[in-house]
Inverse folding.
């Protein structure tokens, strides 16, 4: 609702003449009205005061206060043509002065004895530290259960060591049920006491193995952990029986640090997997692969060999045109690889870049696996075969998986490659427990096209033939039109008629 | 709700304000915190549970929502989201208010959220007068009072577009 000085006199008279309807909105109990207000931007909620006396000061009892410095201007009247600078034009940024004053005044007027949810999403500058300290104390005083502190850097050159350091009282607050921290520093000096915490998201914060361990062991009822743009740790051992869902989005370490917008683009970037890797990278990755198989202790290596040269030693060779910067924290060395063990986990989502040399040690309870990560392959035969082997390894570790989503990294969709690669999945008998008992749904993201004699085709064929309780195979194609090569339609038709061991299985192509 | 699935053969009867009875599977009823608490406190499930504030039409809608959410597993979140957005799509305001009140009374958080969101979306970005007309809100301020309220909350709009 916009506060415009609309029809203060004329309209009011005309509305009096209309047949009066029942005002069911104003008759709703306060709790429901406040719930409705919590879905409005705060300034709109404040604006409702003007409606009638019933609404006067009502918003001040709202148990949810969300402050965002960035507003998307989604005015439907606005029909400006979409241009390359639309992005900057349509986001309205409140000046710091205005934003801080707005937050201060709103908190001052808040009448609610318990503010369940607080969110601050804004550009942080070191001079605002004392303000933010006060806001977090407000959260403590008001018994806030859900706190989102989402900071933005002033610019990409901002000194990351001067990011906001969370005050210690946040770590000992046992009321929190949901926390989300972005671009700040976590240095708990004493114990953490997140006894009620169910959901934790941390993004662009440097974490160490010790800190993660401390957090996990201090959060006995944690159900969901999300780490986005993560770095600084090599071990993620989750023994919490309550933790059912783990989301990992875009690994950020150790060396290449891109500009903000590039990192964001990367977030969903699943199409770049065709980029050829650097030869030297590959050689090293292969070498490491053999060594780590032993270390994996019967587990499965889910290995990342990004084109960008994750290993600091490869920095010299890796040259993909991006300017390299030293990683966050200057000289701090990131531990290599990432080892994930989460025996109680039911749902795992990995997207964006994956930490180099990531191993899933124990995910035996997993039901739902989304692997939209870039497990880049170069164009070479050996690497493609290696990835097939790893996919096979994953399938055998996913003993109870019912739903599997696979990004484009895994398979070759053209009809190139050796006979061994093209017929990898159909040339020999492979038995996976999840196929015979559990797997019901498989989704392939962004399969641009594929041919009948391709490696991808052989995998789908394999699934249809062996997955005994399969219900759905969904193949997302970025385009479904005449632009698709003829081979795609030939292959698609064959797949649709291919024999399947589950009579209920359907194959669907979606945009 | 894992525990409820084991007993999903149990059923209970809900009675609407206009006397219609609905036989509901227990795991569906458990979507409602109110009913869950009643069942936990061992109000015998053989009895008919009266819901004197909810008419049959609304109760049918509510139970449709509960059934969909009780039956879907967590892995079908996308499907549930699209169900939710369709659920209220062409609903008239009267039905929407009945639903929001029922969800509030029966303590069905998900349903309360989507109904409240829908009402909030109707309010959002509209001039006050239009909101008043849509919801028949009678402006009981005098012009002077209204001007004073506007002046009073002007601070909130400094710097906003």
């Amino acid at each position: 609702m916009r506060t415009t000085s609309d029809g203060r006199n004329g309209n009011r008279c005309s509305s009096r003449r209309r047949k009066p309807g029942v005002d069911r909105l104003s008759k709703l109990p306060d709790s429901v009205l406040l719930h409705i207000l919590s879905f409005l931007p705060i300034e709109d909620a404040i604006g409702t005061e003007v409606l009638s006396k019933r609404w006067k000061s009502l918003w001040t009892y709202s148990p949810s206060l969300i402050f965002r410095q960035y507003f998307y201007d989604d005015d439907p009247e606005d029909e400006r043509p979409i241009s390359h600078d639309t992005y900057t034009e349509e986001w309205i940024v409140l000046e710091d002065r205005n934003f801080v004053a707005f937050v201060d005044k709103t908190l001052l007027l808040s009448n609610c004895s318990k503010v369940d949810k607080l969110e601050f999403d804004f550009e942080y500058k070191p001079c605002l530290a004392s303000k933010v300290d006060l806001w977090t104390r407000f959260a403590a005083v008001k018994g806030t259960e859900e706190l989102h502190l989402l900071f933005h850097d002033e610019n990409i050159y901002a000194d990351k060591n001067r990011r906001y350091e969370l005050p210690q009282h946040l770590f000992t607050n046992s009321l929190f049920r949901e926390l989300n921290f972005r671009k700040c520093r976590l240095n708990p000096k004493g114990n953490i006491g997140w006894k009620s915490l169910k959901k934790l998201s941390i993004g662009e914060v440097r974490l160490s193995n010790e800190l993660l361990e401390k957090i996990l062991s201090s959060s006995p009822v944690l159900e969901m952990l999300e780490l986005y743009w993560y770095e600084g740790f090599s071990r993620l051992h989750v023994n919490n029986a309550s933790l059912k869902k783990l989301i990992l989005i875009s690994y950020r370490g150790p060396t290449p640090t891109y500009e903000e917008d590039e990192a964001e683009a990367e977030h969903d970037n699943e199409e770049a997997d065709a980029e050829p890797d650097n030869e030297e990278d590959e050689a090293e990755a292969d070498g490491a692969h053999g060594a780590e198989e032993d270390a994996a202790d019967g587990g499965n290596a889910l290995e990342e060999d990004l084109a960008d040269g994750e290993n600091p030693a490869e920095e010299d060779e890796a040259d993909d045109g991006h300017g390299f910067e030293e990683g966050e924290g200057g000289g701090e060395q990131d531990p290599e690889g990432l080892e994930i063990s989460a025996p109680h986990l039911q749902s795992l989502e990995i997207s964006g870049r994956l930490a180099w040399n990531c191993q899933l040690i124990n995910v035996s309870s997993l039901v739902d696996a989304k692997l939209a990560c870039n497990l880049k392959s170069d164009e070479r035969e050996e690497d493609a075969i290696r990835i097939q082997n790893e996919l096979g390894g994953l399938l055998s570790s996913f003993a109870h998986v019912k739903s599997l989503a696979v990004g484009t990294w895994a398979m070759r969709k053209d009809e190139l490659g050796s006979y061994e690669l093209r017929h990898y999945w159909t040339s020999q008998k492979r038995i996976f427990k999840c196929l015979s008992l559990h797997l019901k749904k498989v989704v392939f993201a962004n399969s641009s096209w594929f041919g009948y004699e391709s490696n991808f085709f052989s995998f789908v064929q394999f699934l249809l033939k062996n997955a005994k309780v399969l219900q759905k195979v969904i193949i997302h194609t970025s385009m479904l039109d005449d632009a698709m090569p003829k081979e795609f339609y030939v292959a698609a038709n064959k797949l649709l008629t291919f024999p399947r061991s589950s009579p209920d299985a359907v194959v669907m192509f979606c945009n | 709700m894992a525990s409820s699935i084991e007993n999903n053969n149990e059923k209970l009867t809900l009675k609407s304000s206009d006397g219609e009875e609905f036989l509901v599977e227990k795991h569906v009823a458990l979507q409602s915190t109110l009913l869950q608490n009643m069942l936990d406190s061992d109000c015998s499930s053989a009895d008919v549970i009266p819901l004197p504030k909810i008419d049959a039409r609304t109760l049918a809608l509510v139970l449709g929502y509960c059934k969909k959410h009780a039956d879907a597993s967590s892995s079908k979140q996308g499907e549930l989201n699209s169900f939710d957005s369709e659920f209220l799509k062409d609903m008239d305001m009267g039905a929407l208010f009945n639903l929001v009140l029922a969800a509030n009374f029966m303590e069905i958080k998900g349903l309360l959220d989507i109904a409240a969101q829908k009402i909030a979306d109707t309010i959002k970005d509209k001039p006050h007068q239009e909101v008043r007309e849509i919801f028949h809100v009678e402006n009981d301020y005098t012009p002077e009072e209204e001007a004073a309220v506007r002046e009073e909350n002007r601070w909130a709009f400094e710097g906003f577009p």
In short: Chain B touches chain A through 46 residues (CB under 8 Å). Residues 97 and 115 of chain B are 8 Å apart (CA to CA).
